[in-house]
Amino acid sequence: MQRPVTHTDDDATLCSIEILAEAVEMAFVPGVLELRTLRDALQDALTSNSSDAIRLAYSAFSRVDRDFRQRISHHALSLASLRRQNAGPILRTARR
Which residues on neighbouring strands pair with residue 50, listed in sequence order? Predict the structure, then answer.
């Protein structure tokens, strides 16, 4: 029996996938199959918003060489920091 496909509409998750996809592009080396697989899996996760596609992308990331994962992670952290700076202050509502 197949599990039903669920979709995510969590903005933080989608933003994280977007940042990771951008970081993969920055670290991409033509001819490295694992990077191409990861890039394709992340693009599928972005277009489908499917939980299964997100799990597949995570699996693809875990199969990438450790040095590439570190490089991708470094790029992703830098991109996330830039996005956070450009987003401005977080508005908080007062609690009563």
Answer: 7
What is the pLDDT confidence band of residue 96, given thresholds at 50, 70 and 90?
very low
Residue with tokens 């590439």: 68
pLDDT in tens, 26-43: 999 999 999 999 999 999
Helix/strand/coil for 85: helix
Q: Coil, strand or helix: which one is 12?
A: helix
Q: Residue 95: count other Cβ atoms within 10 Å of its Cβ.
A: 4
